[in-house]
Design a protein that fits this description.
The protein is of the alpha+beta class. Helices cover 39% and strands 15% of the residues. It contains 5 helices and 3 strands; from the N terminus they run H-H-H-H-E-E-E-H. Strand 2 and strand 3 form a beta hairpin.
């Protein structure tokens, strides 16, 4: 998964300004988890198998398929994904090595059973927790995702 659009470079306060094409972490990021939670089972299995060949973060989670299943079921039940609390935003570094100080939630853009992509919202994690942000903004993210899906 890659970042294909962002407003971070237009934010008036400093965020980790990722560039278009940035590689999104499928297991630890909110958009990655949203994608995995809603994509078809066969596609999910293929993605997880590919991740086993990747030297990035999250390899220990790949060794715990039951935990991955629980995370994805919690995500579907909640209706949106949240970023792993122990991940700092860098694809291959742990939070002790790199912490962008952000939190994130994401929802899938669906077309039938196919996931076209995800829409996410990031914020400075010291200011709000994911429950607070979701209460204020998840319904707007879901509306945006539905509108985007009609354009596809």
């Amino acid at each position: 998964m890659q970042l294909c659009e962002t407003s971070r470079n237009r934010a008036y306060f400093a965020l980790n300004r990722l560039e278009i094409g940035y590689r999104i972490h499928m297991l630890l990021s909110a958009p990655g988890r949203a994608y995995l939670a809603w994509c078809p089972e066969k596609e999910r299995a293929s993605i997880l198998n590919q991740l086993k060949k990747d030297p990035g973060m999250g390899l220990e989670l790949l060794e715990r398929p039951q935990r991955i299943a629980e995370i994805l079921e919690e995500t579907r039940t909640r209706g949106y994904a949240i970023r792993d609390k122990d991940w700092g935003g860098d694809y291959s570094k742990n939070k002790k090595e790199f912490d962008d100080g952000l939190g994130a939630i994401a929802v899938p853009i669906l077309s039938g059973r196919k996931v076209l992509g995800c829409v996410n919202l990031v914020w400075i994690s010291k200011l709000f927790n994911s429950d607070q942000i979701a209460k204020l903004h998840v319904s707007r993210l879901q509306v945006a995702a539905r509108k985007i899906s009609t354009l596809a």
